[in-house]
């Protein structure tokens, strides 16, 4: 009987994961794409910091993610490209740019040293086109803060010629509403 309990407990822990006991991931790396998926209705993949999961948006069976790359189409010379732009689908709070740098080393140093969200930041639900080496603060619809280091941005083309963009970023999530980020 004791052996069955141990096996059952191991299965629960494996399926539920450590998030059940330790909460969401507070630091990580995410890649957001503006590529649309689906056949009759289309959706993007967005990220939820609280769940540490990617969700389809819009999709009624999935929770609303905290952040998506909705992409912005622009004309560059004679070619149309899709460049990354971030949006908070909850339509609450949003993003504030706190740093923009010429290289990754300076951006990473600023990101690492940025340990407290200023009181006077103005948040917008969506960003304009984002670029590599920027540092953003996001205030989620739950009132929590996230700092984002944009490492790479790309404009891509899918197999069918569809244009989309991707952004690779590091994040640090503060799930308790505090303005202070852990070191």
Which structural traits does this protein have?
183 residues, single chain, 3-stranded antiparallel beta sheet, alpha+beta, 16% helix, 3 helices
Q: Could you describe the 3D structure shown?
A:
With 183 residues, this protein is of the alpha+beta class. It has one domain (22-174). The chain is 16% helix and 40% strand. The protein contains three helices and twelve strands, in the order ααββββββββαββββ. The chain has helices at 2-16, 19-22, 104-113, and strands spanning 27-33, 44-48, 53-57, 68-69, 72-76, 79-83, 85-87, 94-100, 126-129, 134-139, 145-157, 163-174. The strands form four sheets. A five-stranded antiparallel sheet has the order 1-12-11-10-8, with helices on one face. It has a three-stranded antiparallel sheet with strand order 4-7-9, with no helix packed on it. A hairpin with a 4-residue loop joins strand 2 (44-48) and strand 3. It starts with a helix and ends in a 9-residue tail after the last strand. The relative contact order is 0.19. The model is unreliable at 5-18 (pLDDT under 50).
What series of H and E elements makes up the topology? HHEEEEEEEEHEEEE
What is the subunit organization of this protein?
single chain
Which percent range describes the beta-strand content?
35-45%
Describe the main β-sheet briefly: 5 strands, antiparallel
Distance N to C terminus = 45 Å
| Total of helices | 3
Radius of gyration, in Å, reads 18 Å
Overall pLDDT? 89
What overall geometry do the principal axes of the alpha carbons give?
globular
Segments where pLDDT lies below 50 for 5+ residues? 5-18
User: What is the helical fraction, as a range of percent?
Assistant: 10-25%
Overall structural domain count: 1
Main-sheet strand order equals 1-12-11-10-8
The count of strands amounts to: 12
- Class based on secondary structure composition and strand pairing: alpha+beta
């Amino acid at each position: 009987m004791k052996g069955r309990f141990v096996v059952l407990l191991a299965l629960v822990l494996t399926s539920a994961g450590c998030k059940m006991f330790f909460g969401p991931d507070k630091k990580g790396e995410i890649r957001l794409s503006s590529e649309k998926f689906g056949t009759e209705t289309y959706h993007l993949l967005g990220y939820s910091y609280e769940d540490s999961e990617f969700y389809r948006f819009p999709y009624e069976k999935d929770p609303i993610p905290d952040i998506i790359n909705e992409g912005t189409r622009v004309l560059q010379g004679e070619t149309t490209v899709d460049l990354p732009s971030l949006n908070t689908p909850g339509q609450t709070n949003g993003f504030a740019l706190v740093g923009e740098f010429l290289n990754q080393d300076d951006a990473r140093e600023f990101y690492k040293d940025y340990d407290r969200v200023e009181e006077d930041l103005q948040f917008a639900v969506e960003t304009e086109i984002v670029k590599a080496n920027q540092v953003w603060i996001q205030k989620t619809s739950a009132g929590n803060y996230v700092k984002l280091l944009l490492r790479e941005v790309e404009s891509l083309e899918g197999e069918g010629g569809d244009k989309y963009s991707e952004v690779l970023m590091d994040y640090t999530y503060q799930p308790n509403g505090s303005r202070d980020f852990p070191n």
